[in-house]
Amino acid sequence: MIITFALIGIVYTLGLHIPLPGIDLDAFASLAYTANSDMLSRISILLLGPTPLFAALGLAEIARLIAFPWLKQKDEQDRSALPGGAIVVVIALAIAAVQAYAMSGGLGAARLVDDNMTNFTMLTIASCVGATALTIFLSDRIGIAGLRDGLWPLYSIPILLSLPNNVIASVEMTRTGAVPSTQWLIVAVYLVLSVAAVVVTAFLWRSACHEACVIAEKTVEPGAILIWPPVLAITVAGYVLASFAFIAPNVIAAAQGLPLQIIALAMASILIPLIVFAYVRRLEVKNGANIRLAATASIIAFIQILLLVSGALASAFIQLPVSPGSIGIIVLTITALGFRSWDTVEVEGSSAPHVSAQTAS
Hints:
It contains 14 helices and two strands, in the order αααααααααααααββα. The chain is mainly α. The chain has a two-stranded antiparallel ribbon. A hairpin with a 6-residue loop joins strand 1 and strand 2. Helix 1 runs antiparallel to helix 6 and helix 3 crosses helix 5.
């Protein structure tokens, strides 16, 4: 499993160093970027990264929680495919095409396109759609315990790749006196406490599932309930604010900056418990286990809100770029735990260990 993850990381890294066809590398170099800079990824064929797949799976997850049973049935029929199957793939490719179209215009406006290049927009769309298809293929090759699909391990790869540069930049900022050295201690304490909180929620949920003796593979969702609630809460809050901006643009414009961030954070904090209990509602458990699951879910929701708020405070007051953010910490920690098959649950009356639907897929 770790070898597969490493090989996929190598493939992904190579893709980040393949520029889009038609990019004027001389013009790019004139902007003081080098081939070794991580800025090269912004003009590579993987410039969209896992974003289209992330958006498609997020929409599918929202639909699944709201009440679209056919998505659940599709997942049960084909354990080897992405949740939602071909529908998610089509949505992801469509999002990639739209984003690539916008990116091509931005690159053209920045004069990074070769003057002799024709049909740059179509080539960019084709490259990004093809790269997204590769991303989907790679995510389907990663089978990590506790995760329904390989999006999150793939999502963690850019975070890990950017870590060395962020550490070097942080050291340089400290050396030049741009930030006080005490911020390293604050960051270290924040990271240790955040990772510990994620580990606690993971093992609390695993223990609750074990005690509940979940009766069917389709009902255990350890990875989903630990990762998706804060992600979906932020996403839905963004959709609501975007819709409100369309209706009342002056109000949103007046609230730009810190007030708007506080509003989005408050909305996400309210949505997290609702999403967590939406996952709990889908579980099929033995009688008497609902109280334990509800209590555990409440703790998970509280910790996720705490992580979200602390992450926002850390990004606001700490200048060192070494922290991957609250979502990054959750993803990296759950992915690392997945290598240990932490969500295997014994089912009564069975001699074999029970593995969740996420592990099976």
